[in-house]
Write a structure and sequence with these properties.
single chain, 244 residues, 12 helices, globular
């Protein structure tokens, strides 16, 4: 049995996260033991989960049409599909650009799931489908490096600066079974308390044990050494001495 409370503490304390790691779980049938997130966007349920709440979102409850399509709850509305809404919000000047973005947006197949749960990772007793973080870029950098420690190589992140929480941080990691990171988007920055210096990262829940293990390795030396900025301090001192 996994100790998700322990995992959450290690993730939070090792890099100094400013909010709780969130677990996301998809359900083929609607469970009745959770509080329904009525009239919520998906990004708003994740926001509340970062603060300690547990919320279940269904097709009946969700208010964001783009996220509803991405989660496979409802078809994409025509005004999003033809770029009208994106141009209306001033996000894209050319409707064709908006159309191309929506055509390439990853989505879960319609009807595959009936509900999605967002709750703090520490409260899970089963493996979440995806683990999501919203935090400063430097904090997320260490989590991404821990993930990279498993096999090395390079990480490739995908985003259209739209649907950052629902697609970039959850749907893509779930479908591709790989990490993804995002700058955030128009919608989540408008609809949640996301800070200007915060970004998003998600990875499959089955990678959690590995990420925690590799993060503990990084904590032995790399994190504290980098944050100490000794190379920068030495450089700054040298530059100061040269001026005098």
């Amino acid at each position: 049995m996994h100790d998700y409370d322990k995992y959450s503490k290690i993730l939070t304390e090792t890099v100094g996260l400013n909010a709780l790691p969130v677990g996301v779980k998809f359900y083929e049938e609607i469970p009745d033991e959770y509080l329904r997130a009525e009239d919520h966007r998906f990004c708003q349920t994740v926001m509340r989960a970062r603060k300690g709440e547990t919320l279940l979102l269904t097709a009946e409850d969700i208010t964001c049409p783009a996220a509803a399509a991405a989660l496979g709850f409802k078809p994409l509305p025509q005004k999003l599909e033809d770029g009208t809404m994106l141009c209306g919000y001033g996000i894209f000047e050319d409707p064709e650009s908006g159309i191309n973005v929506m055509k390439q947006m990853p989505r879960i197949e319609q009807g595959r799931y009936k509900a999605v749960l967002a709750k703090p990772l520490k409260d899970f007793d089963e493996t979440p489908d995806v683990v999501v973080f919203e935090d400063t870029a430097e904090n997320l950098m260490w989590i991404a490096l821990a993930y990279l420690n498993d096999k090395g190589g390079r990480l490739e992140f995908s985003t259209s600066i739209l649907q950052a929480v629902c697609v970039d941080s959850v749907v893509l990691p779930h479908l591709k079974q790989d990490i993804n990171m995002s700058f955030g988007c128009y919608g989540c920055r408008d609809a949640t308390d996301a800070k200007p210096n915060e970004a998003l990262l998600g990875f499959p829940g089955n990678k959690l044990n590995m990420v925690v293990d590799k993060l503990q390795y990084l904590d032995k030396q790399a994190i504290s050494r980098s944050r100490a900025k000794n190379v920068y301090k030495s450089f700054s001192k040298r530059m100061t001495n040269l001026k005098h």
